[in-house]
Amino acid sequence: MSPTQNLLLKSGRWKLWEFPLWALALASPFVLSSHALIINEIAIVALFALSLDLILGYTGIVSLGHAAFFGMGAYSAALFAKFIMPDPLLGLAVGVLSAGVLGALCSATILRGTDLTRLMVTLGVGLILMEIANKMDWLTGGADGLQGVVMGPLLGQFEFDLSGRTSACYSITILLLVFVMARRFVNSPFGATLKAIRDNRLRAMAIGISVNSRLVVVYTLAAALAGAAGALLAQTTGFASLDVFEFHRSADIMLVLVIGGVGWLYGGVAGAIVFKLMQDAISSITPQYWTFWIGLFLVVLVLVGRERLIRPWTWRAGRSET
């Protein structure tokens, strides 16, 4: 086995502290049952952030239209549950598949041009889908949203109740499964080539890496995972609206990665926890100006540096995990 393969294998190994961390996450809906709803939201945002990190942190593709795939997954799962079958897992698969197909079709938009071009094109895709959903009100409900989405029991036994415990357990379990898959993916030889493309696309092409095909694969995968997050939102809330396509979805998830850090899978999880808890706490105090305080926090974070706000050894240890 080559030294590079040994390094990838070592970086992909689970550390002892991760097992109790995820066990605590899975137990949190029961231990903190009164906060199960926000735990569910955090898990969905973390999954959404993880999907964006695959293309932003590991491949260097900046996108402001990632909400397009999130919304596609949400509407696909909601429509499937309302008109075909209310099974959550099948609906989740439909959301993942539809968003993945959309991602494969839209992957051509990231193969050429500058970062600014990609920003505008990806943003345009999200706006187009939002307008299509608005015009097709006979199917999507338009501005009123798709209502009357009733999910069947998870695995035929666990009902989605108002307390949100089933929803939170469901979302955290999916997040864990996706995290395991993504970790294997980024620490594989394929993932190493993505980092080479991120660092220098021309040099990667010069050494024989098929850049375009890899960009298509990772963009499709990221879109599918974003669709999973959207499907979870629609299934656990029983509702899908035009809000899932709006620009603020893509902007918020970028802020989550700014807080947690890019190119580190736990960055999306950590950023989601901090962002959602800050949003919940500050909006309960000042509903009108909570965005100001989050913006101020981000300014301080950028000026001071993330490493100075937390213990440097913790940050370095976390980055070495993936």
Provide tags for this entry.
disordered C terminus, mainly alpha, 16 helices, 0% strand
Folded structure, characterized:
By secondary structure, the protein is an all-alpha fold. The chain has a single domain, classed as ABC transporter involved in vitamin B12 uptake, BtuC, CATH 1.10.3470. The chain is 73% helix and 0% strand. The chain has 16 helices and no strands. α8 packs antiparallel against α11. The protein is globular, with a radius of gyration of 19 Å. The C terminus is likely disordered.
Describe the protein's topology.
Layout: H1 3-11, H2 18-31, H3 36-56, H4 67-83, H5 88-106, H6 115-135, H7 137-140, H8 165-186, H9 189-199, H10 201-206, H11 211-237, H12 247-260, H13 265-285, H14 290-304, H15 306-309, H16 312-321
What's the short story on this structure?
This protein is mostly helical and about 325 residues long.
Cα distance, first to last residue? 20 Å
Overall residue-averaged pLDDT value: 83
Please estimate the helix content: over 70%
Report the CATH architecture: Orthogonal Bundle
Task: Determine the number of helices (DSSP H or I, runs of at least 4 residues).
Answer: 16
Query: Regions with pLDDT < 50 over 5+ consecutive residues?
Result: 311-322
